[in-house]
Amino acid sequence: MNDDTEHKVVVNDEEQYSIWPADRPNPAGWRDAGFTGGRQQCLDHIETIWTDLRPRSLREASQT
Amino acid sequence: MSAPTPDAFPVASGQERMWFLACLEPELAVYNVNLWLPLPTGCAPEQARRALARLVARHEPLRTSFSMRDGAVLQLVHGSVPVTVEETDLRPLPATEREPEFARIARADAARPFTLDQAPLWRARLVRLTDQELRLVWICDHTVFDGSSSDIFVTELLECCAALRERRAPRLAELAIQYADYAVWQRERLTTQRVATELAYWRKELTGLPRDLGLPTDRPRPPVRGYRGEVHQFALAEELTSQVEEQARPLGGTSFMVLLAGFKALLSRWAGHPDIFVGCPMAGRPLPELAPLIGMFVNAVVLRTDLGGDPSFREAVRRVRATLLESLEHQELPFERIVEDLQPARDLSRPPLYQVAFNLVPSDTRGQIGNGTVKVDLALDLNLRDGRLHGRLEYATDLFDTATAERLAGAYQILLDAALRDPDLPISRLPMLPPAQRTRILALGRGPRVEPPSPAMLPEQLRAQAARTPDATAVVSESGQLSYRQLYARADRLAQRLRRLGAGPEVPVAVAAERSAELVVAVVAVLQAGAVLAPLDPDYPTDRLAFQLADSGAAVLLTQSRLRDTLPEPDCPVLLLDEPDPPDGTEVKPAPAPRPDNAAYLLYTSGSTGRPKGVLTSHRSLANRLDWMQRRFQLDAGDAVLHKTSVSFDVSLWELCWPLVTGARLVLARPGGQRDPGYLRHAIIRSEVTTIHFVPSMLEAFLAADGVERCRSLRRVICSGEELTHGVADGCCTRLPGAELHNLYGPTEAAIDVSAWACRPETGSGGVPIGWPVHNTQLHVLDRWLEPVPEGFPGELHIGGVQLARGYHGRPARTAAAFVPNPHGPPGTRLYRTGDLARMRPDGAIEFLGRADTQVKVHGVRVELGEIESALAEHPQVRRAVAAVRDDAPGGRGPVAYVDWAGEPGAAPAQLREVLARRLPATLLPQAFVLTGELPALPSGKVDRGALPSPASDDRTQVAAAYAPPSTPIERELCVIWSELLGRDRIGVADDFFELGGHSLLAMQLVGRLRERFGVELPLRRCFEITTIADHALEVLGLLMETSQ
Question: What domains appear along chain B, each with residue ranges and CATH number?
Answer without folding.
Answer: 7-184 (3.30.559.10), 196-206+224-432 (3.30.559.30), 856-947 (3.30.300.30), 969-1044 (1.10.1200.10)
